[in-house]
């Protein structure tokens, strides 16, 4: 009798288990319930080892069951799912079926967003960036860049400065492809560029603050790629930016954050000679003076040829600036204006200030060298041979510029070649009592520097 009760109870439990079986996709749980939960767990345990070893054929059926019936069970469904479906795509010859597999692969990514899009590390923006990357790779010349652009724009708009860098890079790639197909999208492309570089620059600053060299390298690579794309696009048109931002600046003249962002963006694309830039700088400076707004007003003063006012604004910018490299730029601008006014000692003083903040500022060395060369005649007006020794000091600066800053190496080399031709000849050195080849000599006048007779 007892045995019959046990058997009856067992049968009731099995019938209840069957009655309450439900797939995870239906009841919103990870594994489902009852027998369906066992089926889910079983198939996950089956496809994982196969997929991990690259046996996608054996992994396919159990993976498909888990993917369809308990999609929230584990991220492994998607980690291995993209590999399995890509394997199907690559091994298919029929173009129509290949398209089906490509769409299926995109659906795997979409389903991962649905169930795991809020993952803190590998969330929606990370998932969509990989989706777009695979799409470009597999779709090839049949890629629909308008569709891809839509995926990525949604992510960039949603995540802002926290957007996955790969998503930002692919967003700009898709935007560029749209521009190539339709030149009327130039304005859109410029705005996307400004938005994208703003995101990457903010992330770069954070990475530098954290001394994260790996992130700095990756972000710098992405930004360089975007900058190169923009430079080669033909869209870096300051007149276009003037048209885009003139009204926006006026409409937002009390919106300090917008104005600051506009100033920063126009600076990045080197459109600092347009009225929109000047106007934004003026509105910001009146309410909340900053280094960038002072630079903007300084550049406006330069355009008006009011050099004294310009120098005053650049001095203010340098005093407000916290970034050493930007401060060096401010000092160099003052040096250039002083040079224009033939104030050579003052110009050198500000070049040296620039070099204090940025020892690799090659243009500062070039400017000092040019000033030395320009004043050679006034240093030794009555001695033609000593006059030529001034070019030693000038070439010293050009060589230093070439040594510290590869970006100005070509200009430095050209100047070295030019002014070496003015060096005193061997005969002139031999006949001059103050000179001996290989010995030090002090250049007089305002220069006052030691150099070596060549």
Strand content: under 5%
Please give the order of strands in the largest beta sheet: 1-2
| Structural class by sheet pairing and helices | mainly alpha
Morphology call: elongated
Report the radius of gyration as a whole number of Å: 34 Å
Mean of residue pLDDT values = 91
Biggest sheet details: 2 strands, antiparallel
> Gap between N and C termini, in Å?
118 Å
Instruction: Give the SSE string.
Output: HHHHHHHHHHHHHHHHHHHHHHHHEE
Looking at this protein, list some descriptive labels.
elongated; two-stranded antiparallel sheet; 454 residues; 74% helix
Structure notes:
The chain has 454 residues and is an all-alpha fold. It has a domain at 1-116. Helices cover 74% and strands 2% of the residues. The protein contains 24 helices and 2 strands. The protein has helices spanning 2-19, 24-27, 34-52, 56-69, 76-79, 81-90, 95-116, 124-139, 145-159, 165-181, 186-209, 213-231, 238-251, 256-268, 275-287, 291-303, 307-320, 324-340, 344-357, 362-374, 376-379, 384-404, 409-420, 426-431, and strands at residues 440-443, 449-452. The chain has a two-stranded antiparallel sheet with strand order 1-2. Strand 1 (440-443) and strand 2 form a beta hairpin. It is elongated, with a radius of gyration of 34 Å.
